[in-house]
Structure to design on (48 residues):
């Protein structure tokens, strides 16, 4: 994996964590995400 791709993956991960972190617990629940699972969901978003 090259440096540019790694950096873009890291940015996507951080953006996802930030956006999900700003959501209320109710909004996360509506999406089927537990607040404790935010980092896991963000990692999965990079893999896809």
């Amino acid at each position: 994996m090259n440096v540019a791709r790694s950096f873009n993956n890291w940015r996507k991960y951080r953006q996802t964590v930030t956006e999900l972190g700003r959501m209320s617990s109710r909004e996360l629940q509506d999406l089927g995400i537990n607040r404790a699972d935010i980092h896991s969901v963000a990692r999965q978003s990079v893999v896809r």
